Hints:
This protein has a 5-stranded antiparallel sheet with strand order 4-3-2-1-5. It has helices at about 40-45, 60-65, 70-80; strands at about 5-10, 15-20, 20-25, 30-35, 65-70. Strand 3 and strand 4 form a beta hairpin. The protein is α+β, with helices and mostly antiparallel strands. It contains 3 helices and 5 strands; from the N terminus they run E-E-E-E-H-H-E-H. The radius of gyration is 13 Å and the shape is elongated.
Amino acid sequence: MSVTYYRINDLELLGKEEDYVPYLYKPGKGWVVDNDNVLMDRIMGFDESEPVKSPYKTGNTSIMELVEEISQKEAEKIIAKL
Length: 82
């Protein structure tokens, strides 16, 4: 099983990707599937504000900088504070 944890800085959320499935941590609910692509949009640099044919729609580094990979221990510390 492959698990990578992320801090989503602009939304103050915690995310993870487990076996290619993205999740967000919701206090009181635990890990829920990220059906709105919050995590993956940031990982892929998807900028919804850009026009459809813009070369900056995906791979936008300013969007990619909104998320950072963290360790499992860091994720556990954040969850403990929520």
